[in-house]
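Task: encode each sequence below as structure tokens.

Item 1
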Amino acid sequence: MKRVLVVSNGHGEDAIALRLSRELRAREMAPELFPLVGLGPDAGAAAPLVGPRAALPSGGIVAFGNVVNIVRDLRAGLAPLFTAQVRFLRRTGARYAAALAVGDAFCCMMARLSGVPVFFVGTAKSVRVAPYGGFEANLLRGAAGVYVRDEPTARSLAGRGVPASAPGNVMMDMLEGAPPPGLAAPWLTILPGSREAAYEDARFLTRVARRLGAERALPVLISIADSVDPNRVAALLKSEGWCVGAREGYAFEACADGVCLLGWSGRVGSLLRPAALGGGGAILALGQAGTANEQAAGAGVPVVAFEPGGAHRTGWYRMRQQRLLGEALDVVEKDEERALQELRRLLDDEPRRARMGAVGRERMGAPGGAAAIAEAVARALAGAQ
């Protein structure tokens, strides 16, 4: 088996890397995962984790001159971690037949230090948000294959001499798995994210969902990422007045004011799969996440995110997501009363929800990318023999 080093730089990217690894393994390649950000996912049998890793305060959010996060990460050991990662890539590249970089151009640049052919899966950029810059395009010209998230971005790069394609969105391949057991649709889905901020975001989102669920007799599912401690979430809910206990198939069950809230630590794609198949499921997603928000939109679930200043004062991260998803994402002021007003309006407006779902599916694209990318890598490596 030929070894392939799969380099990723973000929590969402880790999940995409895992899905790609399954396809690589199905084609008799041996993927090994090297997460540049955080400790990496629970890969199980999909692929071993390799390389130096550490959990830093920013969770990888250091782009666009985020000086505060950069300083915090530097104090927590970013510089020696980066040096160790560079050393690992330069010294161990000979182990691998190729590298697959999942993330942004920085991830591609790091993967190229291995000295082996690099295939790039661009998850972070789109011409709908911001096109790849001149330096990035020049970097990508040296890649063995470039796979981006949508056709307009592929055409833009192709016009600049980068042989890019958009074979399908790997995020949509991740809408798989058995749905939550013993739960009748529709339900509200909470997506608090995968970073440290997820706990406080969960506090706000569950307060809103508790009131909305009581009004509309809707159960609530909260998705708990691998990097989030379900016991800590359960303790937070207890402090908010929820009665928390056990329920088979879930991390916990919480009850308050006639509302049932279930903690789901399985794949977020399982929560979204019923909606993607057109069979109901989540009626709304209250989301502060990155990849999970985008997956929800791609499944046709209207997504509502919350920012302190509302839609007109978003930070760069939410602004990027808003541009990417368009009307599929509704950004509301992070205030409990205003949030409830907007969510009530949205639940009462079925045509708007349908429109948001259609836009989300169009913006995120079709599945099939994971298999197509893995097949391209397999063909290239077979031809290199």
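Item 2
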Amino acid sequence: MPEQILIVEDDISMAHGIRDVLEMAGYKVEVTDNGRRALVILETFRPQLIISDIMMPEMDGYELLEKVRSRADWVTIPFIFLTAKGQRTDIRVGKQLGVDDYLVKSVDLDDLLVVVRAKLDRALALNQRTQVEMTNLKNSILNTLSHEFRTPLTYITGYVDLLQEGTWGPEDLQRFLARIKGGSARLNRLIEDFLLLVRFETNDVKQSYDMDKEPFSNWAAMLGRIFADYREQADRHKVELVTDLQPELPLIEAHEGLLDNAFRRLVDNAIRFSRPQGGRVTVEVKAEGKWVVARVIDQGIGIPPAELPRMFDRFHQINRERMEQQGSGIGLAIVKGAIELHKGQIECLSQEGVGSEFIVRLPVL
């Protein structure tokens, strides 16, 4: 099926000339003389490329481009301005609106064909890459749902079946109920994590950040709460929790709930990936120039060098078949989203068998 191109040009002789050249090159072409009619055509004719004049009656090229870029089903269509105008200001406006290229009407038709082919090939490559990424994302979500949701559900239904099948003493009942509660709590955390990740992916969480951000410097209180909540887990893993805080740290602008959430995840990871013999998890916070720098340092199993570039990718997991404790693979993606929302930076340094260090830099007010 030939690729489809829409030409929007009020100079009919020029529009037909361009159409003839494109049709001889094997493209299917529709022509109209203003932006308003182009929008009507786009409802039924889906082009792979739009070539539009700027100065037209009823609706000019700028407004047409804005309308095209505002529709989710049109936003990826390559858009070229073909106009008699060549001033820098006109080019700047087009670029700001998201135009893909800008050609004057005196362009050689062979050059036009080259540009058209290049834009179509680029759009095709981007579409194919998007399809691959969407397929990978879908598979990651399905794998996560299959494993992470099925495990606690199996746990819960197993103990419910035991309760229904026999007569149990008070101690057994308390043990079963505790296990059911643990499974339901894990499910609840997973659901909350997925919802929070979606909020980051859609930028919805930024509204909460903007509404609730305020000056913050009380690291001792925040880390004290986190360590208190993870003390039992740390004891089970024979991990000592330590803070090293510089006195009188400068203020940063923070949403304390999101900041707390991010550091809980880093501390939780540090504990869960500790070595069997245990060790220490240290959170250092110091002022370094224009940054407040927080380091979460563990003496755990470490991360293979090849995995470090993908540490913060959503659903990325390391050796899932050997490391069942790692969770859904979205925790560090949420951490990265929270830190970047604070206009901060995060990186990970690690050495296998020695431990890992997550470094968070947050700008000083």
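Check on item 2: The longest strand covers residues 279-288. Residues 2 and 27 are 5 Å apart (CA to CA).
End of task.
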